[in-house]
């Protein structure tokens, strides 16, 4: 569960222009390197019939711009400019396969300051091939000893690089204990989310997911699942979830741009359901993969074609 396959990339978008991959470098004095002063997005593009459909591109870029606003960056880029840059970057690399897109807005070099308003702001976009993030059909997870940061300390609504130290500590701990991923509780002791994923619980065919107030990132895929499930006739509730509810759930699954919809088959050594992906999870996962490839016309407004948009 790591990305190392960056070979073959041709071009990176940096500060308004495409540059060769080998020249896409930053200086050691970049403020973001020292203080984590960056906001970013993870976006997926899916291949179908020689086209690539970028899933909910505008929603992701809107969240990116809003994240920059929350951390008080003087961000010069609009959603429209960033959307155009994403399309150009994919085309410049000539991709026709599934891709992962990483736009990042970050504080630049030659200033060591904790005042976000005076930092020079830079932006980059990289794109690389990605098929599956998790290489398992079901995950074993544990509840972490690390708590999710509350909104009063670090804003989870912002997809900020600094927030991810919390996730790194939790995920590393889980893997050292032999698990695939971590689940974090919020400051009140209720379930928050995974280290890099939102959580859904299924009980008696009713879906529950932790609310925004449980210090979660407002996931784009989470929103997609809520809408998909509701359209399929399932009841979906956003509410606080206690740790022990996880153990007696019929089904559990993660949602996320990288994770997509990934079943959880064990929590803290307790088997979930029959130890495999449940029927609700499987149904939603199948629908999700049809939607992102343009096979469900009712959701076509979520898709941005890369080559059809010439």
UniProtKB/TrEMBL annotation:
CDD domains the record matches: BCAT_beta_family
Domain of life from the UniProt record: Archaea
Claim: Methyltransferase is one of the keywords in the record: no
GO MF annotation, one: branched-chain-amino-acid transaminase activity
The keyword Phosphoprotein is assigned to this record: no
InterPro entries named in the record: Aminotrans_IV (IPR001544), Aminotrans_IV_CS (IPR018300), Aminotransferase-like (IPR036038), B_amino_transI (IPR005785), BCAT-like_C (IPR043132), BCAT-like_N (IPR043131), BCAT_family (IPR033939), Class-IV_PLP-Dep_Aminotrnsfr (IPR050571)
GO BP, sorted A to Z: isoleucine biosynthetic process; L-leucine biosynthetic process; L-valine biosynthetic process
EC number(s) reported in the record: 2.6.1.42
Alphabetized UniProt keyword annotations: Amino-acid biosynthesis, Aminotransferase, Branched-chain amino acid biosynthesis, Pyridoxal phosphate, Transferase
SUPFAM superfamilies: D-aminoacid aminotransferase-like PLP-dependent enzymes (SSF56752)
Reactions listed under catalytic activity: L-isoleucine + 2-oxoglutarate = (S)-3-methyl-2-oxopentanoate + L-glutamate; L-leucine + 2-oxoglutarate = 4-methyl-2-oxopentanoate + L-glutamate; L-valine + 2-oxoglutarate = 3-methyl-2-oxobutanoate + L-glutamate
This protein's pathway: Amino-acid biosynthesis; L-leucine biosynthesis; L-leucine from 3-methyl-2-oxobutanoate: step 4/4; Amino-acid biosynthesis; L-isoleucine biosynthesis; L-isoleucine from 2-oxobutanoate: step 4/4; Amino-acid biosynthesis; L-valine biosynthesis; L-valine from pyruvate: step 4/4
Function: Acts on leucine, isoleucine and valine.
NCBIfam families noted in UniProt: ilvE_I, PRK06606.1
Protein name per the record: Branched-chain-amino-acid aminotransferase
Species the sequence originates in: Caldiarchaeum subterraneum
